[in-house]
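As a representative case, the lines below give one protein's residues and fold tokens.
***
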Amino acid sequence: MLNISKGAKLALSMLHEAGYEAYCVGGCVRDMIMGREVNDFDITTNATPEEMKIVFKNERILETGIKHGTLTLLYEYEPVEITTYRIEGEYKDSRHPSSVSFTGNLKEDLARRDFTMNALVYNESEGILDLFEGKCDIENKKIRAIGDPYARFTEDALRILRAIRFSSTLGFEIEENTKKAMVECAPLLHKIAGERIQVELEKFLLGKNVKNAILQNYEILGILCPELAKMHGFDQRNKWHIYDILEHTAVAVENAPRVPYIRLAMLLHDTGKVHTFTSDEKGVGHFYGHNDKSAEIAREFLNKYKYDNFTKAEVYNLVKVHDTHTDLDRVLVKKRLNRMGKNRFLDLIKIQRADNLAQNPELVNLEHFDKLEQLANDIINESCFSLASLKINGSDLVSNGIPTGRLIGIILNTLLAEVIDEKLPNEREALLKRAMEIKNES
């Protein structure tokens, strides 16, 4: 017996007592079978929307999806979506059906879904019903489209990215015919809203099997960012790299922290290499200026897929500086912290560590990044590297006779620069004395 939530149990029992069929359906059943945590329970039933409203008339419900057959039961703090068995009409935009009609047949409802592993249903009295061999595909770790894969992806092209996402998050292989249809239907992704693509990409990038998912689906990812496909098989031709650009990228992504904007930065950090490759007289490959080109590509990508301003800023800036070396020097690290901010600089260290883990292991010095991170944290906790941590401020200067205006900013920034360079202690009396000297010099 699978462990379903209290809200799902209530919904099933009330529908059954009223004489209707009802089952948990889709991802919640798949995840219960796999022993994964389930956050949302969906239920499918032969009760029509109007019949459901009668069944749940004394419960808290939301009717926002009722015209498409979906009612949401609110049990305590848990929402349970309950949808009438339905058949969808022709898909005219590779995303939305032109019409939805209700049916009393469970198999007809399940046949419209995307993959066999998502077409399993369950209730406590009947157990698991498996009409499309989804349980077998879960056991064999296969992602297989229901029925004709070309029809499934033509109906809704976003299913192509869902398959890639499941491959990454579940570690499943995509069945051969399903994969072939995905590649051939991939241009239909151009019809999908950027926001929807963004959601799937984020889940995909956080998957435990993201490296293999990138390498096995580069043609499809190339529809979203053409450089990703061009990176496949691109020999870097220098001693620092044992992988082509795509495999280097895939390994780097998997080694990066599972933070959406950091993994996105890793996915895009070397996209500019396919445009900047040169080789010297010895045949050694170089990629001068690839940081700037990669940042430019990242900006276009982020705008196209409607990322928020925070993600745009972080990804763009991290990609732009990802190859910037920082020596283990206190003054230099303080300058970097001042210019980049502590969070972005610490993120840069994480990105550079992941980047180096995807290079030639015989030449990588990971200890450098451990020491750099420790040095940065020591400075953040103990030293001054920003105006906010300076022991005096503009009000202190004004109260000591320095007039408000442009001079205040000049003095404060001069004091900060001298503190960072360790020419001046970050102590109030020393700073005030030096401030008066700068005033007199001005």
